[in-house]
Amino acid sequence: RSQKSNGESLQRSTSILRTLVEILKNGVSVVGTAGLLFHLHAGLTTAAICTCIPLFFINIAVSNKLYALYEKRSEKIRFINYLKSISMDNTTIKEMKINNVFCYFIKKISDIYCENFNEDKAVRKKIFLQRNIYQFFDELIFYGIKLWIILLGIKSAATIGSVLMFMQSVDILKNAINNT
Does residue 52 surpass a pLDDT of 80? Predict the structure, then answer.
């Protein structure tokens, strides 16, 4: 047991460290690309950052919903594990065979798993729809921002390379904010 806990604590520490490095890396990307876009137009930078904020709140809402779902079902999972351990225990098998409880245990476990599966299916479908609706509007807004960049580039007589650099900066900014 101590070997398992030592291995897991090392993995968790490493995972936390990787996450912190990823957050730092994405934060630097956000600041750098926001500064580059700010050089082109301040309103463009604000619009690009503000369009990424709803995804942050959607992800938090989804995480809270899934956590509440798993928290609610943890008692049932413990009950299933208890039924499994009872049915595998040598001291109770004889009484269970005499009273024919195995069918009840199997039905109870199957019912709980079916209920969990159906609940997961409904929640995942709802989450899928929410994210797809957001992504549709997000793509529309980002194409609008890219069109804005093209128009600003034409207005300021910027080179094609500069316009492409600003458009790529918007994509980098979006990915950095979404991954943070």
Answer: no
